[in-house]
């Protein structure tokens, strides 16, 4: 599945390029519980068509009711939902939840086209929206930062897709690729083994046939990328993992038991000049400990860990596979 922000912005670009009236809504503040995080965006066309989401649906319905058929040219406007308990209930917000939106009316088609073009080229963009008149300025950014709103402008970042590179086209890869796609990742699967590639059945995942280390080198992993080795074959996994550790990938891991993970680390130190420090970012055994044994359950545990790392969640040690198995064995003893 494509990056949702890019889908929203591309749709809004097309509407405005066709001369259709539309607005862009951005979640700029939340208090208490909120169904969508700060930075979430939604495009609304004057006929009621919507792309994206800022809530569970009720706020979208209210915006459609307010602006259907009449979206004027005017400066950006802040609107708040859920100030009272009654209003929070009306708009389907969790208890105590409040969110604030910035509405940009009739955004400029040329600026939207430039923003989409830069995002489609895989670059990170900082977008400045002047509150006085809605003027938008774009500039390249090296790293994303939190959305910022003051009395003069909104500053937010839009980035390229999150990407996942899987080494191996086996069963676990099929389940993991499927979950990654519907979680918004662009997925590339690498396997030089014809017997595995021949049965691959995940539409939307790009399948490549080169040697994994060459594919990793050409993949250009960045801070929005993860690399996961799933073949259990050192000839395919080891060099690819070493190359991945030289990138800024936010998650690098390899499938295997605790014994296999220890053997892999020893092998990389003894034969490939690695050190415990250089292997510190290598995750293994990968996944969260949920007692998984089947390929789909293992894929669920791995995807959960990837998403936790992506979202900056610090997981307790007992949720890691090695620690979790040890605690589970002690509880049964």
Automatic annotation (TrEMBL):
InterPro entries with a match to the protein in the record: MoCofactor_Util/Proc (IPR052698), XdhC_CoxI (IPR003777), XdhC_Rossmann_dom (IPR027051)
Gene3D superfamilies under this entry? NAD(P)-binding Rossmann-like Domain
In this record, what's one Pfam family? XdhC_CoxI
Which residue numbers delimit the XdhC- CoxI domain? 15-82
Domain of life according to the entry: Bacteria
User: Which residue range or ranges hold the XdhC Rossmann domain?
Assistant: 164-306
Q: What is this protein called?
A: XdhC family protein
What is the species of this protein? Ramlibacter aurantiacus
